[in-house]
Amino acid sequence: MGDILFLGHRLPYPPNRGDKIRGYHIVQYLSARARVHLVAFADDRRDLDPSAKPEAMAGSRSVVWRGKSQARAAIEALLSGKPVSQTAFDDAAIRAAVTDVLARHPIDTIYVFSSQMAQYLPRNPRQRVVMDFVDMDSAKFDAYADTARWPMRWLMRREARLLLRHDAAVARTAAASLFVSEAEAALFRTKTGLRHVHAIENGIDTRLFDPVASFVPADLPPHTIVFTGQMDYRPNIEAVLWFANEILPLIRARHPDAGFAIVGRAPTEAVVALADQPGVTVTGEVPDVRGWIAVAAVIVAPLKLARGVQNKVLEAMAMARPVVASVAAAEGIDHAGAIRVGADGPAIAAAVIALLDDRSAADRLGLAARAQVEARYSWEARLAPLDALMGLDLGPGRAPAKRPVAV
Q: Cis (ω within 30 of 0) for the bond into 54?
């Protein structure tokens, strides 16, 4: 087959947050089978380093700084009738880079990672188009609208409506549309009536996220509960605020020494302020999240709004730690009972307390979680359906890309 153009709304490297983890492993997988050319945005200055690319990728690399403000994107959206999700990523330099790659390289397939990047497809593409929506973002904005006040409620409903219309139009031109879970794929099929919609689930690198791997454990008190994630992401912010303000006090009533560590880069002011509460620690960015996961008494994922498969849950399971998740955070994961799920705040608190009370049961749950991840969620197995969807072939003498051993 010919070359592949990968369009990313964020540089898929290093694999240190949910969307970058998925993008990174997809690029690695595709690079073992074809020459991949990358055109992507950067929103971290470190990503502008020319060496910042997946090591297996042999094709060209064009990375453009995304500096457009949300206010400007919102004004452009209101004037143009487009969703903000699209205008926020409208950039002449990316458009020029795509045109250049298509002119200079024998591109057979365009892999579009997130619907924001679909605006850079040629008007009538002669290449195969694979559209990876990851999550159904229009449903996310609908959910935001349910709890928002005017005028944000109106803006969120507008975004949901226009984004669904946009995504359906893109999906009609694509050879395949991908989502991170069957639940997301089924919802999209129901909303649009379209076929050629598939689930390509996230996986986990079980050699990297392994309790016996080499990393430096964090120095934590024995009853520390840990949450990991990008801490300027709204669902994560809402999750830790809910846990710290409403759930942690219930746990500390039984275990006064219980602590809550919020581990992740770019914490907002509201998240940082939680460190003023008894038992709460906000770390900001850490060199290696495995050191925090490995020594946690319990990992929690109390997300009220979650789409698809939560990498934070898979990482904790792979590290053989006991996990307590909300219904929303657990929904996309085939955990086979290897994590505890709470329907509300008191139920989540009760599940955490039970694990703190019985450390042997907690250890057994962690080992069951590790076994389930090993059996179900290797990246090679999760991405294997791409071979048929994209006409991929390893060919004689070619081997899959070597996976990283460090983040």
A: no
The type of residue at 390 is M
- What is the distance between the alpha carbons of residues 44 and 330, in angstroms, rounded to a whole number? 30
State the DSSP string of 251-315: HHHH-TT-EEEEE-SS--HHHHGGGGSTTEEEEES-S-THHHHHT-SEEEE--SS--S--HHHHH
Q: Cβ distance 403 to 141 under 8 Å?
A: no
pLDDT tier for residue 1 given thresholds of 50, 70 and 90: low
The DSSP result for 19-54, as a single string, is HHHHHHHHHHHHHTTS-EEEEEEESSGGGGSTT-S-
Strand partners, 299: 226, 323
pLDDT score at 100 = 97
Query: H or E segment at 61?
Result: strand 61-65
Per-residue DSSP letter, 247: I
Decide: 244 and 210 in contact? Cβ < 8 Å.
Answer: no
Largest CA distance in the chain: 65
Peptide bond into 346 cis (omega under 30): no
Instruction: Tell me the C-alpha distance between 398 and 393, whole Å.
Output: 9
- Average pLDDT score over residue span 22-31: 95
pLDDT for 305 equals: 86
Q: Quote the pLDDT of residue 57.
A: 81
Q: What angle do CA 176, 181, 184 make, to 5 degrees?
A: 80
Cβ neighbour number for residue 80 with a 10 Å cutoff? 11
Average pLDDT over residues 206-234: 96
The pLDDT score that the predictor gives to residue 46 is 87
Mean pLDDT in residue range 189-213: 95
Q: Which of 293, 267, 296 is nearest to 282 (CA)?
A: 267
Whether the CB-CB separation of 285 and 230 falls below 8 Å is answered with no
What is the pTM for the complete model shown?
0.82
Q: What is the mean pLDDT of residues 146-157?
A: 93
328 backbone dihedrals φ, ψ, rounded to 5°: -65, -40
Tokens (6 digits) for 71? 């206010």
Cβ neighbours around 185 below 10 Å, total: 20
Q: Are 366 and 21 in contact (CB under 8 A)?
A: no
Place of tokens 């599940």: 351
Query: What are φ and ψ of residue 145, in 5° steps?
Result: -60, -30
Burial class (CB in 10 A: 0-12, 13-18, 19+), 276: exposed
